Amino acid sequence: MTTVRQRRVGKGTEAAEDQPLEEKNVKPDEKILSDHTGGKLWNILSITVGGIVAISLGLLTSVYVATLHENDLWFSNIKEVEREISFRTECGLYYSYYKQMIQAASIQKGLHGLVYDNKTESVRTINILERMNVYQEVFLSILYRILPIQRYLEPVYFYIYTLFGLQAVYVIALYVTSWLLSGTWLSGLLAACWYITNRIDTTRVEFTIPLRENWALPFFAVQIAAITYLLRTHLQPVQERLTLIAVFIATFLFSLTWQFNQFMMLIQALALFILDCFDMLPTAKVMWLYIIQISGLLLVCVLQFFNSMILGSLLISFNTSVLIARTIQKNLKKGSLLNRLGKLIFHVLLVLCFTLLINKFIKKILNLESDEHIFKFLKAKFGFGATRDFDANLYLCEEAFGLLPLNTFSRLSATLLFYVYIFVLFLMTVAAIIVAFRNLSGSNQVQFMEKMEECTITLKPDAAYNLLHTVLFGCLALSTMRMKYLWTSHMCVFASFGLCSTEVWKLILKCIHLYTSQRTRVIKYSIPIIILLYVSYKFWPGIMDELSELREFYDPDTVELMNWIKSNTPNTAVFAGSMQLLAGVKLCTGRTLTNHPHYEDKNLRERTKQIYQIYAKRSPEDVYRILRSFGTDYVILEDSICYERRHSRGCRLRDLLDIANGHIMDGLGENEPDLKPALYPRFCEEIKKTLPSYTIHFTRVFQNKTFHVYKLAKHK
């Protein structure tokens, strides 16, 4: 206020200086009060409009993906069995528990059936709530039962509409994060538009509805928005406490709904750790975030009946190690540059050692081996030695777990998203490096930093966190295609924030000596609007064509198989086959399975490898003995697996089995020198010749163009 008065006096006439003191003071105060009131009203109006736009875009996204799903399958017109078959692979398995809870005589009996389940894995009773993240199906089924909507809405629609509704939450969270970072809701609008126009690379909810990530990612986006707000400066204590509660709730829900939560949050914890080491985040808030991650995961562990895989997670070991190390090293951020670098190196080594020791200790006590396949996969993927391990190779040969395809970048570039993202990422990374160096050395001690003063910006904690978040999840996406949805959605947020950020444009204009506040304001609003107009003009017709394109679900062979199973086999029959198909068998028919696609259990992985000997070069006696050991009554053979051509040689399922069994692979090509010819022909091919050695154990009871079902003889 003092500065304003001085400027007004300095520009006044001599007559103005002779006016009474009271008069000189009143007019500026009235002006300031008027400006303050006007600014407050403008802020309220801006927040209201921005909020309405956010909610509208979220709802439009939900309607958009729901319409695409309907148009692609004609979901409202197909039979129930066709609807269920459309939930492919593990999606069908998860949905089957929702269906089971809906059809149970009571909620209590439904829960009892999940806790003491003997139909998902034959000759075993397992606790589904412990093994799988299906609390969302339980909650939704209970909600459907108690709400008076059964007459108006089928259970399947209640389920899929909930998932499509979560897409609204997802888009709103992305919108809010971008808005918080940039200070303008125009940034959120651009982020949401990019998310929608890049739908192929930002979500797959319309064709994999029950997938765990479609439940979890909206909560993860809410958590990121809450962390972004938490890291803002000058928060009131009440605001900080409420935000911490929001972070905890979002973290808990994210952890509860996805089995890979611990790995995603480990990356998040690494981002917090790195930024805290370089003094780019307030330490107290970082410590709270570590505690929230641990407590959220432990609460999920309790709900999942003390799931050992959670207790043995690297996240709990890492966060605990950081908290211990920070207690030991209290003066980590004091001293000269070399002194601090020495302390940081020691701190990193201390945390790493503690993490490995704690994790190994927990796994030793719990005898934990459930996640060993993941580490085998990672070891082989990043070139730390070839492997013949069947489980690791099964992941390595799947396209979803391969490197991110290059055509992804061409699609993202078509909407200008990737170009803007790289531009913003480069500028923010340079700024982050300078700020980190300044924090370590102290700006008063380094003349170089003083020379760079005019061209640098102070990187805010919330921007710093989102920068490292996008870098680390970008590395994850580049290495594993399935994880790209964690990166591309945040890419929309980060690119739109940079384009609408005053700090970014201020940095650029200062470096080229063209900075004025008015010019910055014009650029930060005009360029996003131009890009919005371009994206709308280029992609709106395509979206309209997409919405008008009508298709229909068509899979008569699978429908025929499911109908035959329901009509011609007893309810207690046990079926063996591929993991993907058996998930559909459980959903559509309710029959007992030998194996299934939820692969996070060592015993199940061993069981699956044994069941898959039906596609290996094994004798009929061996295959029969293996299948009967799991109580199998019927085995389903698929031509698409037996004569697979989708994968190249060495990655076909039959090749993986041959390698694991020490046999030479089929077809032209090299084999490892220690592989030997098999003593028997391939079972899935030879059984179709109806030779006596096979018919004594197996009788074909169903056949169509895709599937062959054999009934196992029950020898005494």
Number of domains: 3
Instruction: Give the overall pLDDT as a whole number.
Output: 90
The major beta sheet can be summarized as: 5 strands, mixed
**How many beta strands in the DSSP annotation?**
5
- Which term fits the overall shape? globular
The proportion of strand residues reads under 5%
Low-pLDDT stretches: 1-26, 443-456
Task: Describe what you observe in this structure.
The chain is mostly helical. The chain has 3 domains: 87-152, no CATH class; 201-512, no CATH class; 556-712, Rossmann fold, CATH 3.40.50. The protein is built from 35 helices and 5 strands. It has helices at residues 2-10, 14-17, 21-73, 80-85, 89-103, 107-115, 128-131, 135-146, 155-182, 185-197, 199-202, 212-230, 237-257, 261-277, 283-303, 308-311, 314-328, 337-366, 372-381, 390-396, 407-414, 417-441, 447-451, 461-479, 484-499, 502-511, 517-548, 556-568, 579-589, 602-611, 620-629, 639-642, 653-661, 683-686, 692-695; strands spanning 574-576, 592-593, 634-638, 698-703, 707-712. Strands 2-1-3-5-4 form a 5-stranded mixed sheet. A hairpin with a 3-residue loop joins strand 4 (698-703) and strand 5 (707-712). Helix 5 crosses helix 6 and helix 12 (212-230) packs antiparallel against helix 24. 40% of the residues are buried.
Question: What is the fold's blueprint, element by element?
Answer:
Blueprint: H1 2-10, H2 14-17, H3 21-73, H4 80-85, H5 89-103, H6 107-115, H7 128-131, H8 135-146, H9 155-182, H10 185-197, H11 199-202, H12 212-230, H13 237-257, H14 261-277, H15 283-303, H16 308-311, H17 314-328, H18 337-366, H19 372-381, H20 390-396, H21 407-414, H22 417-441, H23 447-451, H24 461-479, H25 484-499, H26 502-511, H27 517-548, H28 556-568, E1 574-576, H29 579-589, E2 592-593, H30 602-611, H31 620-629, E3 634-638, H32 639-642, H33 653-661, H34 683-686, H35 692-695, E4 698-703, E5 707-712
Parallel strand pairs: 1-2, 1-3
Antiparallel strand pairs: 3-5, 4-5
Helix pairs in contact: 3-9, 3-10, 5-6, 5-8, 5-29, 9-10, 9-12, 9-25, 10-25, 10-27, 12-13, 12-24, 13-15, 14-15, 14-17, 14-24, 15-17, 17-18, 19-20, 22-25, 24-25, 26-27, 28-29
